[in-house]
Amino acid sequence: MSAIRRKPTSSNADQELLIEGHPKDEKEKEEQKPDIRGDRRNIAILLFLYVLQGIPIGLIAAIPMLLQNRGASYKQQAEFSFAYWPFSLKLLWAPIVDSLYVRRFGRRKSWLVPVQYLLGAFMLLLSLHVDRWLGGNGVDPNVPLLTLLFFLLNFLAATQDIAVDGWALTMLKRCNVGYASTCNSVGQTAGYFLGYVVFIALESKDFCNTYLRDVPLEEGMITLPRFLWFWGITFVVATTLVAIFKKENDIEDAHMDARYTEEHELNIHESYKILWDMVRMRPVQILAAILLTVKVTFAASDAVTSLKLIDAGVPKDKLALLAIPLIPLQLILPLAVGRYTNGPRPMDVYLKAIPYRIIMATVATGLAYVTPYIIRGGEVPVYYYVLLITSYAIYQVFLYSMFVAAMAFFAKISDPAVGGTYMTFLNTLCNLGGNWPNTVVLWLVDVLTWKQCTTNAENTCQGKEQQQSCEASTGKCEITFDGYYLESGICVLYGIVWLLLVRKWIVYLQDLPVRSWLVVKQKGR
């Protein structure tokens, strides 16, 4: 691809532009009220692009449930969890997406169009072979290959996110840019819902036979290959339409004068230099250590509990459908919590939420423990689902309290001269802090779990050979000690100690003056 780099500007000029801004323009921007005339189609396009982005994200969340039902080990689940990582790492290549493009085709379309074509192609490729790679019926799943392919799928979705986020700023009028975040949250949530909840429900023969069919059949209404094929075609068709009919900065647009026609961005070298300057700042280093370690406390609960519930007999489609009544709560919580985090000390809410989230994580572990005793003969009582939804809803309250408080703190401390890069950097640390503990605890479940064959006490069912030997002797590998509960206990104890040791550092960071976080000031030294 022939690429055109932005014309470099001097570092000082960039800083002056970013720091001083355009007071007149800012004043006009504040005075403008949202006016969607001329932007209705653009808002619809943005919403649709974010829906497409949510499809692979939701689908990747559904794969572990399919793997669990097909006999995947927790080490294999840990391996597949790397497929979640691209959205946590996208800052590494975001400056490239922002700076390299074909001018005639459009700055954002130069990436959006080929990336979405690749997304469609990947889905079509997966639709041909994914059933075989998932295993089942005595065939082991090909987890390394699945991890690689879904990692690449998520990498493309993350790259599409970078392009769409940037395009939203110039596609909409200045007074309507606020709608971009709405399109992002609503569209991505809708796409995730389609890729995860809807797929899991319609893929389940039990759900379809119970609620959607008069005559029971041996499979769901859709299969993973059909689902991938449909969305692969959708991506290709939608991308073709965008490539042909949607232009960037249309000169015939009657509202062109109300749009951002010029983006003042750092070039590649300057962007990576800013990131390096951030890493060298002492407050950022302390904050990074906090963000990268706090979620170890909740890793066992967040990463393993749902899989343990499936092992205990909770149908995966019912587990996925539990997300539906929680959607209104997840929409309301950020607004409700925001009332308490908009002040000068948002991290006070963060600190107050941690003990309650630890308690609810412990409750989740207890719920996983009693589940096998509640489910008898494959029947799950209604009161169990009520208990599950209630505990999860309460957990969400404290999860969102921490999330919203952290976002408010990031907004407070981010250097306005490089606000977008600063916020993305802190969000990356926050996401990484959740991904690596989840991968580790998933991998350790099998390591810490002890098993024994029912027909041979010397057979500890470690590895495929011993498991097959046990099955050949008409035995069954039974768990004598479940490492999940040991992990849960360690995580809770870790969280208590972490909170006692780190609380003072969080208070210290919150009390620092805003100038301590200015990266441009650091550059000037």
TrEMBL record:
GO cellular component terms listed in the entry, alphabetical order: membrane
Protein source organism: Drosophila gunungcola (fruit fly)
Region described as Disordered: 1-34
Assigned keywords, A-Z: Membrane, Transmembrane, Transmembrane helix
Residue spans crossing the bilayer: 43-63, 83-102, 111-130, 142-164, 227-245, 319-337, 349-370, 382-411, 484-502
Key word Transmembrane helix present: yes
Domain of life per record: Eukaryota
Basic and acidic residues biased stretches: 19-34
Protein name: Acetyl-coenzyme A transporter 1
